[in-house]
Prior knowledge:
Mean pLDDT is 49; it is low at 1-210, 330-340 and 342-375. The longest helix is centred in the last third of the chain and has 54 residues, at 251-304. The strands form three sheets. This protein has a two-stranded antiparallel sheet. Strands 2-3 form a two-stranded antiparallel sheet. Strands 5-6 form a two-stranded antiparallel ribbon. Among the domains are: 2-97 and 264-305 and 312-332, no CATH class; 99-142, no CATH class. Helix content is 47%, strand content 7%. By secondary structure, the chain is mainly alpha-helical. A hairpin with a 6-residue loop joins strand 5 and strand 6. The protein binds a DNA duplex through helix 3, helix 5 and helix 12. GO terms for molecular function: DNA-binding transcription factor activity, RNA polymerase II-specific; sequence-specific DNA binding. It comes from Sesamum alatum. One of its GO terms (cellular component) is nucleus.
Amino acid sequence: MELGLSLGDATKPFGFLKENNTQKQQNTAIIKKSGLDFCIALGLTSSTVADGGREKTQKSQEEEEDDDDDDDDDDQSSEGDGSDDTQGETHLQLNLLPLAPAPRRISPRLQSLPWSSDNGSSENGSSGNMGRAAAKGLDVNRLPVAAAEEVSSANSVGSPFQMDLGMYRRPGNGNQMGGSKRDFEATGNDVVEAERASSRASDDDENGLNTRKKLRLTKEQSAFLEESFKEHNTLNPKQKLALAKQLNLRPRQVEVWFQNRRARTKLKQTEVDCEYLKRCCETLTEENRRLHKELQELRALKTSNPFYMQSPATTLTMCPSCERVATTTTAAPPTVAAASAKMGPIPKALPFPLTRPRFFPFPQTPTHPNQPAAS
DNA sequence: CCTGCCAAAGGGATTACGTCA
DNA sequence: TTTGACGTAATCCCTTTGGCA
């Protein structure tokens, strides 16, 4: 994603927007507010736009994994890459990092292979690329299936997730549960709810209908699923079966619950991102306003000084990172073409990482892109 | 009656694997 | 024996549907 700040004429798009494909232009929003032209360009730096959000999501998931694995290394690599090819560039990149880590999708067949985490053989994730992917994507060792099944079958002490499920299950109903007598005493509503669901499901089963059944998971079931989701937001088949068995749900129900839960997480993250971009927009608007004012002052100074144009042209440039203004004297006033040529190729990333903790666009601890990174 | 939440279903896409020519 | 095409199964995400508080 790229953010471009245009001062003055918003009708003239950024250079990198003109040069790039139309999809970037489609993602460009020009905001005119109170007489000031403010242009913010939101575009994907990689070719992930074509397939809607899907490919982008997968890419971001991979990036999230990297972040999870080694934040420091990732930051350094980003810094290094950026400074290599974007020195002196003025484009800014926002790295939107979702809050919840999303693991790489793993084929169920891979998960069932000997090096998959279910067999406890990938504790260090050193079983090659595929093994690493499986180990990184799903930390299923947190809830060993064998242990889960043991807890489920024995229904004994030991597991923090253990619940007294199915004690009042209706005969013949394999899907729903009614909760325990203790649950009924504590939270009668839940039991009533479960009973209703149980009753509905039971009726449907008795009628032999395979129609959609609307059920509300009990608080216990939801809490259990939530705990599971916290540990791993995707399931492999064994985990799914274990969960379903433990909660007295169909595996399909567990699967659907996880899908919907992921969707809710993503929705929340989108809202957070939206709010974040809004703040960025406000900050950039304010900065644009400030620069406009500065420009007017310089123009006023120029008109008030009749000898101004006789002196060699002076260009004021401000480092986007440290906000220091540098003056360079040239023989002739710079042209747009000359400035464009001086800028070099369009960058794809910032010379320094801008992640959420460091509020865009003005880092609290600015690092000059031309300076070597502090060791 | 309206609305929001949420479980569930449907559909397209992706991936891994097996089969076969 | 290797290879590419094809089918299948499983899962994903996205969107929509429908029940319920």
